[in-house]
Design brief:
Elements lengths: L4 E3 L14 E4 L4 E4 L5 E3 L9
Bound molecules: zinc ion (ZN).
């Protein structure tokens, strides 16, 4: 089974300020905090939309 979620070590949630609670959903291209549920789209250098 392939994991599509990747924990972002060393990052802090800007909403609840919990460290290492953010994970990146590679399939959906977004980051979500597992503590408060806050999510945000990832802005990449390419700026392309799928
Ligand atoms: Zn949070």
């Amino acid at each position: 089974m392939r994991l599509l979620a990747h924990v972002l070590d060393g990052l802090r949630c800007s909403v609840c300020h919990t460290e290492n609670a953010l994970w990146m959903d590679l399939a959906a291209g977004l980051v979500e905090c597992r503590e408060c549920g806050q999510s945000a789209l990832i802005v990449t250098d390419g700026g392309r939309t799928a």
